[in-house]
Amino acid sequence: MLQQKIQTFINSSQFEKSIIGLILLNAIILGLETDAMILASYGEWLELIQNIILLAFIIEAILKISAVAPRLKLYFANGWNLFDFSVIVLSLVPATGELAMIARLARLLRVLRLTSTMPELRLIVTTLMRSIPSMGHIMLLMSIIFYVYAIAGYHLFHAHDPQHWGSLGIAILSLFRVVTLEDWTDLMYTALEQYEWAWIYFISFIFVGTFVIINLFIAVVINNLEKSKAEDLENIRQPVSRDELLKDLADTQQALHRLRQRMERVE
Asked: Both 87 and 183 in a single domain?
């Protein structure tokens, strides 16, 4: 019965909103600590509030673990819970000596907890993580395109414009400037002084590198976003597990037993 009450409490919208509020407050305090005047005047108060927020996060973790005890695997098998727990453990590192930097980074990681508390952000992060393998193949394709165009650019333009095409490495940097559309026309106009048809080189690279590759990235993310949404819906529709049914049945039997005892006392 107690576990059910804890589960109801931690799953309530009020509890979730409170945690989100604490995370936002923590983020504001981290920003205030970057101001030397504020830190000098209110540093002790800010530290006290940080400790209170950390205590609240510890209580949150204890409640979530208590809700599934003794089956702790249900808590730690969830990647988001594991991330939250790791952030809390790192936050317990003293902010002094050689470990001071770790403690500060742990405080920054608390802000990232916002992604684990908001379902919409959690869905986006999950989608991005799932997209990494596919993005790796796209990056490989893009690397090949960069390599081919860099060698071609070196042979075509290095004599006239050695500053931007003097070596393979510099040529790759110049192509990165072109693909990000950062003053790429300056490079093209310089090349046009030597070859009238140099525009074909630049326009074709922009078309392939900017439009085609970026659209491939977008397509991969959208595809994985749809898969993540479908998985979330499937998890919602997923039937209750056998262990959960047995637990609910045992709780019901205990409640009936207590009710029977009360009725016998009344009689």
From this structure: no
pTM score? 0.63
pLDDT: which is higher, 107 or 178: 178
- Is residue 95 very low, low, confident or very high in pLDDT (cuts 50, 70, 90)? low
Q: How many domains is the chain built from? A: 2
Give 137 or 153, the one with higher predicted confidence: 153
Q: Which of 91, 116, 141 is the last residue of a domain?
A: 116
Same domain, 35 and 141: no
Which domain does 193 fall in, by range?
122-233
The whole-number average pLDDT for the span 236-256 is 61
DSSP 155-217: HHHTTT-HHHHSSHHHHHHHHHHHHTTSSHHHHHHHHHTT-TTHHHHHHHHHIIIIIIHHHHH
Tokens coding 155? 């042979």
Nearest to 224 by CA among 128, 136, 140: 128
| pLDDT, mean over the chain | 81
Same domain, 103 and 139: no
Domain boundary (101, 116, 131) is at 116
In the block, which residue shows the tokens 């959960």? 244
Is the CB of residue 49 less than 8 Å from the CB of residue 25?
yes
Phi, psi of 78 (to 5 degrees): -85, 120
Q: Give CA 259 to chain center in angstroms.
A: 48
